[in-house]
Description:
Elements: H1 4-17, E1 39-44, H2 45-63, E2 71-77, E3 80-95, E4 98-104, E5 108-128, E6 135-158, E7 161-172, E8 175-181, H3 189-224, E9 229-232, E10 235-241, E11 249-250, E12 254-259, E13 262-265, E14 289-294, H4 296-307, E15 312-315, H5 339-343, E16 349-355, E17 360-364, E18 367-381, E19 387-408, E20 411-430, H6 441-462, E21 466-467, E22 474-484, E23 487-496
Antiparallel strand pairs: 1-12, 1-14, 2-3, 3-5, 4-5, 5-6, 6-7, 6-8, 9-10, 10-13, 11-12, 14-23, 15-16, 16-18, 17-18, 18-19, 19-20, 20-21, 22-23
Helix pairs in contact: 1-4, 1-6, 2-3
Amino acid sequence: MFITRALIFAQLLLFVLGAPITISDTSSTSSGDNDNPGFKTIVSDKALNYFKDVALTVMLHRLKDVDVPDISGSADTKMGAMTYNLENIVITHLGMTSSTIDTIAGQGLTVRLVNVSGDVNMTWTYAQADWPHFKDQGTAVIHIKDSLIYIETQVLSAHGAPALSVTKSGVSITNLFLQLEGKASWLYNLFIDLFSTEIKSSIEIALAEALQDSTSDGVNTVLASLPLQQTIGDNSDIVVDYRLVNNPQFFKDYATMEHKGEFYYVPNSREAPFVASPLPDTIPTKEMVQFVISDYMPNTAGYSFWKSGGLRVTVQDKDVPDDSPIRLNTTYFDQLIPPLPILYPNLMMELGVSASQTPVLFFQESGAQLQVATLLDIFVIFENGTLFKAATLDMMVFCIGSASVQTSDGVPTLQGQLQFLNLTFALEYTAIGPFDVTNAEQFVNFVISQVVLPQINGMLSANSGFPLPVPAGLHLVDPMVQFGPRFLVVSSDVVIDPVEAGLISESSEERDDNNLHPSTPKYPNKQIIKVL
C-alpha cells in the first residue's frame, strides 16, 4: 500500500502536469540572478471595471456613515448680526449614474464617479445677536446633484505583498439645493446662501477624507488576504512562494502582478539550480483574469520534493488489481525473473518506486510530457518481515497528462491526470545473479501503468491539488486551462463575495440594501452572490 509519501509524489506530479518546460541545468548560475517570475497574474480591463463596480458600491454605502462635523458661526445679515449652528449632519443617500477607471502607466489607477447625487439631513438653529433677539430652529434637507468624485491610487509591493495607497482624491459638488423647514421659513431664504456655502465645503472635505480611508482600507483588506506562501497538502516542509518580485505594473488595457513562483524545501531552502524563462506579456483571451505558470515553477517543485526524499512510493500485493494475472509473490515470477522463485520460493514481495533525479516536464502545444528517472526496487519479504532487496531496475518513465482547475473548500486549485506513455529500463543491481530483464518488460509496464499511475491519479482527483493565489472572496467562473510554449495559462471570469472578502459583515444591513447593485457579470452554472 502506498505510504504517506505517495501523496507527496502525487501532488508533485499534479503540479508538474500543469506547467510545460524545456529545462536546462544551470547549476553554475544562482537563482538569485533570475529576474523572470515563475508565476504571473494578468488582470484585464474587463476585470478592473468589475472590481471598480464592486468597490464603489461598497464605498458609496460606507460613505453614508461619514461623520460631517457640526458647523457654527456668525454673520452680518439684513436683520443684523446672527449666530447659527448646523448640527446632526447625516448623509442619507449617495448614488451615481456612471463611473470610469483608467490606468496610470507604471503606477496605479484613477477612478471617477460622474453625476454623483445624494441627500443630506441636518438640524439648524439661529439667534439674533441684538434686540429683538429673534431665534428659531428647524430641519433642513440638502439635495446634491451633478457632482464629481475622483480617486487616484498607487499600488506598490510592500514586503512581497501588493498594497494600495490613495495619492489624490477629491469631491466637487456642482449643484446643491437646500430646503429649510421652520416656523417662519420665509425668513430663512436670507440664510440659504450662507448655509449652502458652509455645508458644501464641509461635506466636500468630509467625503474626501473618508474616501481615502474607505478606499485604502477596503482594497487593502482584500489584498492582505492574497496568499504569499502556502504549504502543499499536509506537508509543511514544502512551501510555494507567491510573493511579488516587483511592483504591480499597469498598462493601457490591463495590469499584471509578477510572483516568485518557486517551491522550497523548508529544512534546506536552497534554490533550484535553474532559472525561469520569460513569460508572455499578455494572453489573448476574453476572460477577466489569467494565471500564467512558467516552466520554472513545476521544476522547482520537483527539485524540492526530490531533495526532501519525498518522491518514493511503496507497492504491496494489496495494491495490485484483483483481476491481475500477476501477484506480488515469487511464485508468479518464474518466467519474469527466473532466479527469484528458485532462491526464494513462495514468498511475498514488495516494490519500491522512487525518482532517482529531479523529474522534468517537457511541453508542446498538445499537452504536457513528463519524464522521470526512476528506480524500481524489487524486495522479497521474509517470513519474519525482513525486506531483502533482490534487484533494482533503472528506468526512464514517460507520461503525458492534462490539467484542470477545481474548487476545494472555496479555493481554486490546479489538478491533473497522468497517462502512461512508455518507459525504458535496464538492470541496475542484482543480488540473485544475472537475468534477462527483457522478460520482465511486460511486468514493469503493468506495474507503472496499472498499479502506480491509477493510485496517483486517484489521489490527484481526491485531494485539493495546488491552490492558486487568489484573495478571499474571489471565485473563478468556468476556468479554462491552455498550454503554450514554456507556460500554462488558467483563464477565467470571476465573481466576488463581499462577505468572504471582508468588505461587509454577514449580518450587515448592506446585504439587503436594494440600492446596491454593482454590474455583476452573469455566467451560466454559477450562482452569483448579490454584492451587498
